[in-house]
């Protein structure tokens, strides 16, 4: 049951926070105190399924509330239902006192269900447009637009844009924040269409979020959110303007949903650019800016995907010509090199048994990868800088340039907890706050502790998977030994113990990631609710940071382990390093850990994309299908527009948070580890092309219309993307230096191959495999269990991957000079590459302005016109006052 104290505040303390226009301040009262309740008008459905108006056909529906009639409920719970009814009647009474008009209609399909339609008259719209600082047209844009450089290709490019006959380009206006007392300054041609439906819905939701529903003494409860949580209302939503697949025949219906489906959400339009202006007009700026960012990111991925595919093709066609790969596969070289056991129960093996692995490794570990990693470091900079420019253009076109400069209203959940007073350091006026400074610190500390606990839990799961790797590697190695040879040989050719361990561990890692992700989502939301941020922007930023920190560790920890930890501290065959004193650290394949990192990335990226698409497409579709089956919806009944929308899935309370999170995690995979997987941008591009249409289809067909919201940019995701790009330079440089064989091969090439053989491309890397493997005496094994390890006759030495002195040397098994040369080269490579790339990023960020010059001119022009118009208006007012004063003086 809902707590009585939920949303309680002292009467009078909240009035400093909630902004109510004076002419619509309600007279608060309690149902229990005998206040007269003003009932909403009850009407019958007029059999117009696509009507967006009240039954009179004049007043537009700006919002819809759905509830169950308590008079038709069973008697056992009458006291609970009566309480809900009292709250609802008080809430509706106060809504009408604030100027809103209500009309109730019974459901066509369920006699217990009632739909309450909300309409905002012109006077109320003007008042709240001023309260919310909504910018509206004051004059047509008289600045000449610069011609597009692509206009000469318009005969080709027009096929990749929505049909202009269906979706015409919006007229451009200079705008200014609306002022009710200066309506004559704005371009008001038609009062019915001056405020767009998204503006009307936004203002309606603002009132619904702050209207009281119960007053008891000095305690006041308010807001539609609490009523929804308490079951007083079943749903609250703005309505779609028509059916998505059928064009409405109503004369006043704009059919924007139908146009969005045909030109944007339908799979046949996958190759077309998005109608961003119409998306913003229909869903609001917050959803519009998300699709603008996603579309821009997808277009930029095209260049990265082309270069990445080129790098992959280069590696694929050169894998058979690689000298070091040939040496691994050569029976006279790799076939005669006996490798030391890689675990305490493993057996000796020949190097050419990893022939297929070495060939596959050549695809991803070649000189093209180095070029591609540098290219991606520059690409991420260009992506962010060009996005800032594009975002600045959208900010101006969508009138959000000064959005954050305006005071954002506090969240109703914050207002409901305001029980303390403090002096505002800026205004010097006392204001209500929900906690003291000490209380704030306690809440933040608890939140941080919880986040750290969950991050440690993820790290514990990584350790558990590492132990699994060690155990499975031992099992695979042992089973392959004792398997019948006629079966084992084909298996050994295609499935090595390293590969089998890598694939199974990657699959388990993906399952663990998804389970922990589901659990932590609820924890992160609970923590953020407990911290009680003041505004919705603060709430979203706090939740974004918590979720991303968790997701960063959850998704990337296994990749970081493979890239930078696995095989780096294993010792040598005679003196291995043990984890927890029991498990011998696993080693990389003789070809290196790069191929395993590639496998991990491919499985997680592919699995995540498939799982997300199932969640976003299949689950909402099944829920709607089941609801229609259970409700026995038939085509014989005429169902009104508001009830058709009620049958759809409700919009998420967190809006587009999960969509942003999904794309930012993908951005991390594309940039942080791209040196090991050049196909990552291509996979991301394919996924995003599908993702845009899936999100569009989901919003347009399966979900109720979301409450339109303002947004200037992508919020806290912008600095997170910038942080990823900075980290990506370091991770890719370290992957090339420490995970791939690029640097050892280059050191060998310049130190040993060039001078003895000359610059002969056929022989430059000859002998590299032999030089990269150290020698170990089989007599130096500390313990030999004959049940597992069997030393073949006449085998006195084996090889292992390292740079150490051979047995018999005064410094046997210590690092040799070539090891230190390689280490020095790796460190020099990281330092040089990082400095070059960071310097390039700095230069590009400096020479590319964040705001285009044309946009700066238009912003200045708009501010000038606003000042001129306001100045002239003030002069007229002053002149009228002077004339009136002179007239009074003369009389």
UniProtKB/TrEMBL annotation:
Pfam families: Anoct_dimer (PF16178), Anoctamin (PF04547). GO terms for biological process: calcium activated phosphatidylcholine scrambling; calcium activated phosphatidylserine scrambling. GO terms for molecular function: chloride channel activity; protein dimerization activity. Residues 279-862 form the Anoctamin transmembrane domain. Keywords: Cell membrane, Glycoprotein, Membrane, Transmembrane, Transmembrane helix. The keyword Transmembrane helix applies. It is a multi-pass membrane protein. Coiled coil: none annotated. The chain crosses the membrane at residues 290-317, 367-387, 451-476, 499-520, 663-686, 720-740, 818-839. InterPro entries: Anoct_dimer (IPR032394), Anoctamin (IPR007632), Anoctamin_TM (IPR049452). Residues 53-276 form the Anoctamin dimerisation domain. It is found in: Cell membrane; Membrane. One of its GO terms (cellular component) is plasma membrane. Belongs to the anoctamin family. This is Anoctamin. It comes from Oreochromis niloticus. The lineage of its organism: Eukaryota, Metazoa, Chordata, Craniata, Vertebrata.
